[in-house]
Amino acid sequence: LPLNEMIFYVRRDAVLRARWLSDLDGLAREFGLSREEYEALRDKDVRRLNEMGVHQYYIPQILRLFYGASANSNGHPALEAYRRAYPDEAAAAERLLARSARREGRGEG
What we know:
Layout: H1 2-10, H2 14-22, H3 24-30, H4 35-42, H5 46-52, H6 58-67, H7 77-85, H8 87-103
Helix pairs in contact: 2-3, 6-7, 7-8
């Protein structure tokens, strides 16, 4: 899938990361993305991208490219976007984290 290749290179190259934010359409054409791939990417529709075949490892990477990765927290825009795309999975992960915290006596959740 061209988008998997694009993400691989964009994550490693500062110039490509800058273009990701300033010229996503041109970058997508350069890597040979289909119109459908580009539109899902532009719309940050990571569930649709995953259904198209984008590697699951790249889904959070895509969100970090759009929203940044500094100051990560439970309220970070990348995590919020992931929660919207995968509400059931996110809720299950949060329940598991809360149970784990209670078992360890941290009292979180």
